[in-house]
Design brief:
- With about 150 residues, the protein is mainly β.
- It has one domain.
- The chain is globular.
Length: about 150
């Protein structure tokens, strides 16, 4: 009897700019060390539905200081995605792991660095599902030299 084992798609972080459906797949805490001491960070990692990348698992992430005070980057990101009610229903803490598998729509933007061959892909903003006009599955046209 054959033993069939599926081969998962390779992951890629080399994504085009645009507006795409996404799903939070991992919340990863880590610590950044510097001469000023240590900073607690969290990385939110999303699987992104990029129509032109059907043969790979498209991934994008964003790092934040682990800070949920009003006006913090992480809180603003979460409120834009899940609404301010997310914090109204919490007592004194929020379990970020509870957000895993939650759908979203993200805007991806490239940040170019001359010392790197490929651009850094930034999750510029996040929205609840159904909020954006998504980037269509169109062939990428290369600019023609005149």
């Amino acid at each position: 009897m054959p033993l069939i084992c599926p081969i998962p798609l390779d992951e890629t972080y080399d994504l085009p700019e645009g507006r795409f459906k996404a799903r939070l797949v991992k919340v990863r805490p880590h610590t950044k060390q510097s001469s000023m001491g240590s900073t607690q960070l969290v990385r939110l990692l999303f699987e992104v539905d990029v129509p032109s990348l059907r043969n790979k698992t498209a991934m994008a992430g964003r790092n934040f200081n682990l800070d949920l005070r009003r006006q913090s980057d992480l809180r603003g990101f979460l409120e834009a995605w899940r609404g301010a009610d997310l914090f109204a229903t919490c007592d004194e803490q929020l379990d970020l792991e509870q957000l895993v598998d939650a759908p979203a729509e993200v805007v991806l933007r490239h940040i170019k660095n001359p010392s790197h061959q490929r651009p850094y892909v930034l999750i510029e903003s996040i929205y609840p599902p159904g909020a954006l006009w998504l980037t269509a599955d169109e062939p990428i046209e290369l600019e023609q030299a005149a």
